[in-house]
């Protein structure tokens, strides 16, 4: 095989790195089509077609796979991406928008916060999505101004969480400043076990690192607060003034989903104008790819036996009124434009002198429901722009798996001599480039039209799978035969 | 155990302070995500006068994921199977984080009032129901008397 990345990146069965962008696959299968069956090029859009042709293209395609989301990433790259993501989830006290932050408080763990942090941060800075405020567990209207300020003052940047998680017990995490973790893995284990161990170590380390990063940020926050207290003359511009704290929290409301208390205004569902906090909004996402009517029913075929093209993942529904393609709008507060692209949070002064008698918040112009395509609307899908890639990857994974399963099945049949004849290995596509002269041996039957002109797409696809299996078996045989050179 | 999200605490409090008529839900002492539930059979349904025991569990991802609900009391119903599993849209694909323990249990109660044999979970029961509804209802009534006391 062409380029097998080193050591552990070599997942499962060694496969060449392949890039699978549909367009790239299309061109290549078009190329193949010239030498082989013209019919194939007609069906380039078929998933299986893509899969097969890209498989045949093998390692040579790697060079142009840069920036392709379908490219198989190495374990190390994946780890780096994940670490970067978690780092982006750390709240920075000096990055605020209207009194809120660019990263979530973390009320319900960070596992579900797999949204695109860059997209979300930009939306918050653009005032199209409410910032992540630090929530209050409860709010009591009888609290005095001083009490409210005191409570807000004491809020941490992040939700406290379990420092010693049982799942990470007994896992060596080594020196966190070292990025190399290979030496922590027990080399006597099988490859699969080693891979599993590596993933466990990585998770434990990342968990620990997150705690350290959060603590570091919190300390920075605390120190600047203490400093600001000591030198009353020059306050830290990033810290909110007392007026700001009170203005934000004295007039908040409870998110109907997490039941936590947040400053107003909240995001509003585009369809039915119900409030939702940003932390809940970013957690609402498409279900993982699944088959329609996914019921655990043993009598139905298992996933591997179903058509991968059937895999779907529907857009999210509004949690309140079930309108498909959930989205929100947000109207930033006009009276406290502070933080990034606004005034310094420390300079905020409440404009109304009689803040005790809070007037009824003026009813904003009530908008009707908006289409998901309206440019004011932020949809769930826009926070996870990679959902389509994920779905396609899952489809390809399944297609690969079922092809493997069929290949095993067919190879079992092939070993019985009676089936030899039927396995006439018509090499219908160009052999996998150079050095594969052996392939000629397998052209036992003369190339013939494989399907009639009016064959259905399914028939053609079936045929293509069959051919792919034969080819892969042939290749396998070649590789395993002792006298191959 | 990780600390309980505010939402679960508040829901539990509100279930106690403002209970739903005909429904009780008590969290387990050792596991505050596990509830013992009773639902009274709706009036004018074959389950009338029956008190059905259920269990309800709030998974880690709740409320982003639906609670798991199961009948413990034997019940003859086309959408509830022998193991007590319930075929109800809001417990599966139509779950929404805006729903609550309270609303889910009300939906279960409503399912007792209007069985739907066309989308069955217990196939044999559903067949009976379609073939001879009167007989099926009589059987449901009998089972209610026998088991849901």
Q: Overview of this structure, please?
A:
The complex is a heterodimer of chains A (about 475) and B (about 150). With about 475 residues, chain A is mostly helical. Chain A is about 35% helix and about 5% strand. Chain A folds into 2 domains: about 10-70 and about 290-295 and about 300-310 and about 385-420 and about 460-470, no CATH class; about 70-285 and about 325-385, no CATH class. Chain A contains 12 helices and 8 strands. Chain A starts with about 20 loop residues before the first helix and ends in a 5-residue tail after the last helix. In chain B, strands 1-2-3-4 form a 4-stranded antiparallel sheet. Classes of the chains: A mainly alpha (about 475), B alpha+beta (about 150). At the A-B interface, loops of A face helix 1 of B. Chain A: This is LAQU0S02e00848g1_1. Chain A: InterPro entries: Sip5/DA2. Chain A: Belongs to the SIP5 family.
Radius of gyration of chain B: 16 Å
Within CATH, the superfamily of chain B carries the name: Ubiquitin Conjugating Enzyme
- Give the termini separation of chain A: 15 Å
Strand percentage of chain B lies at 15-25%
What is the percent of helical residues of chain A? Answer: 25-40%
- CATH level 3 topology of chain B: Ubiquitin Conjugating Enzyme
What shape does the CA trace of chain B take?
globular
Number of domains of chain B: 1
Describe the oligomeric state of these chains in a short phrase: heterodimer
Number of helices of chain B: 4
For the largest interface, the chains and their residue counts are: A-B, 22 and 15 residues
Percent in strands of chain A: under 5%
- Cα-based radius of gyration of chain A, to the nearest Å: 29 Å
Distance between the termini of chain B: 35 Å
Chain-averaged pLDDT of chain B: 90
Question: Unreliable runs of chain B, pLDDT <50, ≥5 residues?
Answer: none
Overall geometry of chain A = globular
**How many domains of chain A, as an integer?**
2
User: What would you call the structural class of chain A?
Assistant: mainly alpha
Question: Residue-averaged pLDDT of chain A, rounded?
Answer: 73
* Widest β-sheet, arrangement of strands of chain A: 6-5-7-8
């Amino acid at each position: 095989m062409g380029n097998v990345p080193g050591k552990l990146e070599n997942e499962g069965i060694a496969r060449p790195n392949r890039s699978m962008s549909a367009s790239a696959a299309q061109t290549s299968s078009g190329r193949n089509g010239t030498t082989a069956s013209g019919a194939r090029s007609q069906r380039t859009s078929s998933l299986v077609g893509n899969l097969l042709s890209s498989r045949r293209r093998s390692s040579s395609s790697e060079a142009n796979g840069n920036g392709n989301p379908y490219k198989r990433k190495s374990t190390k790259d994946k780890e780096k991406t994940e670490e970067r993501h978690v780092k982006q989830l750390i709240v920075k006290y000096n990055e605020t928008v209207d009194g809120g932050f660019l990263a979530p408080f973390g009320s319900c763990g960070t596992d579900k916060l797999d949204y695109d942090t860059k997209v979300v941060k930009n939306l918050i800075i653009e005032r199209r999505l409410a910032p992540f405020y630090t929530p209050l567990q409860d709010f009591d209207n009888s609290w005095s101004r001083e009490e409210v300020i005191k409570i807000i003052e004491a809020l941490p940047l992040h939700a406290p969480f379990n420092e010693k998680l049982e799942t990470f017990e007994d896992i060596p995490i080594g020196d966190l400043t070292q990025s190399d973790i290979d030496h922590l893995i027990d080399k006597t284990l099988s490859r699969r076990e080693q891979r599993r161990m590596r993933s466990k170590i990585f998770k434990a380390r990342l968990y620990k690192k997150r705690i350290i990063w959060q603590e570091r940020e919190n300390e920075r926050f605390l120190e600047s607060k203490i400093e600001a207290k000591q030198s009353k003359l020059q306050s830290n511009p990033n810290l909110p003034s007392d007026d700001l704290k009170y203005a934000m929290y004295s007039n908040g409301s409870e998110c109907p989903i997490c039941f936590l208390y947040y400053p107003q205004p909240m995001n509003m569902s585009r369809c039915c104008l119900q409030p939702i906090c940003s932390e809940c909004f970013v957690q609402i996402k498409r279900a993982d790819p699944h088959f329609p009517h996914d019921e655990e029913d043993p009598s139905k075929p298992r996933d591997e036996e179903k058509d991968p093209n059937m895999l779907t993942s529907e857009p999210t529904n509004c949690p309140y009124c079930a309108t498909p393609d959930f989205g929100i709008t947000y109207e930033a507060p006009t009276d406290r434009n502070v933080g990034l692209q606004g005034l310094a949070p420390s300079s905020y002064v409440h404009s109304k002198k009689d803040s005790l008698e809070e007037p009824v918040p003026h009813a904003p112009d009530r908008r009707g429901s908006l289409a998901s395509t309206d440019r004011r609307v932020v949809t769930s899908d826009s926070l996870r722009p990679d959902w389509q890639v994920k779905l396609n990857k899952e489809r390809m994974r399944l297609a690969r798996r079922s092809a493997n399963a069929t290949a095993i099945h067919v190879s079992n049949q092939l070993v019985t001599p009676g089936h030899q004849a039927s396995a006439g290995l018509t090499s219908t596509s160009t052999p996998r480039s150079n050095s594969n002269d052996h392939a000629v041996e397998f052209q036992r039957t003369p190339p013939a039209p494989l399907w009639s002109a009016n064959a259905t797409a399914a028939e053609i696809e079936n045929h293509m799978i069959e051919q792919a299996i034969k080819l892969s078996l042939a290749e396998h045989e070649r590789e395993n035969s002792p006298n191959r050179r | 155990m990780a600390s309980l999200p505010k939402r679960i605490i508040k829901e539990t409090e509100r279930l106690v302070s403002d209970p739903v008529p005909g429904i009780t839900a008590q969290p387990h002492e050792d596991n505050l995500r596990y509830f013992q539930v009773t639902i009274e059979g709706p009036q004018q349904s074959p389950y009338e006068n029956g008190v059905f025991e259920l269990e309800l569990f709030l998974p880690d991802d709740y409320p982003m994921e639906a609670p798991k609900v199961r009948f413990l009391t034997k019940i003859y119903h086309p959408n509830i199977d022998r193991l007590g599993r319930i075929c109800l849209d809001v417990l599966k694909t139509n779950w929404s984080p805006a729903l609550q323990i309270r609303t889910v249990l009300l939906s279960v109660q409503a399912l007792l009032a209007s069985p739907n044999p066309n989308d069955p979970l217990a196939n044999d029961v559903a067949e009976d129901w379609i073939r001879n509804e009167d007989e099926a209802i009589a059987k449901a009534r009998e089972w209610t008397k026998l088991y849901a006391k």
